[in-house]
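Researcher: Structure prediction, please.
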Amino acid sequence: MSIHDEPQSKATDVDDGMAAWEAGVQRMKAELQARHPELFDEAGELRVKEAMRQIRQRTGGKRRLSGTEFLELIEQSSKRRADAS
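Model: Predicted structure follows.
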């Protein structure tokens, strides 16, 4: 009997969750690589300095964004993609 209200997770639940997480990360990486191949090296690894340079460029050099500023940045990006389609 457990002293917690929720049943404990089984190892297979954790493994399934981790597999889903990894699959999601791989999908996002593939999408980013398709949209911005310049951000990746020959081995397919993210060029972090270039990614950060582009992010700072889009934020006007800011290193920290408020929630509102972040949402505005995302909205602008979505608009640009829609206009390009």
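Model: The mean pLDDT is 85.
Researcher: Thanks, that helps.
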